[in-house]
Design brief:
Order of helices and strands: HHHHHHHHH
Radius of gyration: 15 Å
Number of strands: 0
Structural class: mainly alpha
Largest sheet: none
Distance between the termini: 18 Å
Helix content: 55-70%
């Protein structure tokens, strides 16, 4: 099972913020609005050479408004946490950021040749499909 602390770390939430490392604490943090910096951090981690990747998670005009408010909406935070969850497990499975990125950005036959990152961004069901593949790789079933 994925540690909520790992998701909080990927989102860049302060280590001293113990509450954000529990399931309900993280849920509250998302509901209250994750900092815009969490989006910037995720975009740098997942696609360091693509300055526009963050706009796949939050549209550009919305991102500009959020920069002023300094917070993401609950829905945007939920999407970001979903991506963070998958990224955390991909890192755990592949052990390096480069290999985790290669997995996420390469078409996968178990996803009808779609890229895992695209499926994860699309919705929660897509994220579960990718998490199942990563779980299979981690725990030994074919993927």
């Amino acid at each position: 099972m994925l540690a909520f602390g790992a998701v909080a770390d990927v989102l860049g939430l302060p280590a001293k913020e113990i509450a954000a490392r529990s399931p309900f604490g993280l849920m509250s943090r998302i509901e209250d609005g994750l900092p815009v910096g969490a989006l910037d951090r995720m975009a740098r981690l997942l696609a360091p050479s693509d300055a526009h990747f963050k706009y796949r998670l939050v549209p550009k005009a919305t991102y500009e408004r959020r920069k002023t408010a300094l917070r993401l909406s609950s829905d945007e935070g939920t999407r970001l946490a979903r991506v963070a969850r998958v990224w955390s497990l991909a890192l755990d499975v592949w052990q390096t950021e480069t290999e985790a990125r290669e997995f996420l950005f390469r078409s996968h036959p178990m996803l009808e040749d779609r890229r895992p990152i695209d499926v994860v961004i699309q919705n929660e069901i897509g994220a579960e499909l990718v998490l199942d593949i990563l779980g299979g790789l981690k725990y030994g079933s074919a993927a």
